[in-house]
Amino acid sequence: MPSGGDDQRHVAAPVASPLLRVENVGLEYRTTERTVRATHRVSFDVFEADRFVLLGASGCGKSTLLKAVAGFIPPVEGSIRIDGQTVAGPGPDRIVVFQEFDQLPPWKTVRENVAFPLRASGRFGRRQAAERADRYIEKVGLSRFADSYPHTLSGGMKQRVAIARALAMQPRVLLMDEPFAALDALTRRRMQEELLELWAETRFTLLFVTHSIEEALLVGNRVGVLTPHPGRMRAEINTHEWDASSEGSAAFQAAASRIHRLLFENDAPGAEGTA
Q1: In this structure, are strands 173-177 and 51-55 parallel, antiparallel, or unpaired?
Q2: For residues 209 and 176, is the Cβ–Cβ distance under 8 A?
Q3: Which three-class secondary structure string do you get for 19-61?
Q4: For the chain, which ranges sit under pLDDT 50?
Q5: According to the model, what pLDDT value does residue 12 have?
Q6: Per-residue pLDDT, 127
Q7: Domain ranges in the chain?
Q8: What are the angstrom distances between the C-alpha of 189 and each of 3, 145, 151, 261?
Q9: CA neighbor of 20 nearest in space, from 81, 91, 90, 86
Q10: Which pLDDT score is estimated for 243?
């Protein structure tokens, strides 16, 4: 017979569901001569406020994966779900920031570029959209340039406008396709640090594509390492411990060397794993 006293039961903490789930996704594209397999059965989960980085060499399908998550490319196998709903096309819950600097309409000012998608979505009137645009323009440090046109801005400033425009829409997932690759090294580093500062302030969910190991370690809290073409998920690595202050450390360089080996070692069956 059980002894007296309080009946104490241990209840397991609920496990968070992923915001984004990519499951066994295969992607293909056609050339004039043949059909090319871009990715093969790639799976990963992205949780609320994650900074998940897809890292791989050119041609591994990482940008194609990002476009599939954005809804621009349908998988030939597998599924992509946001909040449990299958992605069937582009939507305001997923906003993309591209590498190109010419993604801003040149006839619109900085404020107009940020406010336009807010108004086009039907969620905000003219005044509300302008006020919200000004708030996010301030977050990226461009208040003095709110009335400027894109041709008067540097490449880094244009990318800040694109980021402000995306975050103002408050997407469920912010998608960034090598957004700093075309910038010089100093500007690129500053943009990486500013992105992390914005994340610390607003805690958005980020899916980020890069071919730079160092950038992946700095920007991500989790990194998915893709094999060369066709892209398969080689490993998933927790990278939350790294920041700009640790880049020169022996531990950081050891992590970078390990990822380099994962990227370019022979693609053998069973190589995929979690680290």
Answers
A1: unpaired
A2: yes
A3: CEEEEEEEEEEECCCCEEEEEEEEEEEECCCCEEEEECCCCCC
A4: 268-275
A5: 58
A6: 92
A7: 106-170
A8: 63, 22, 23, 24
A9: 81
A10: 80
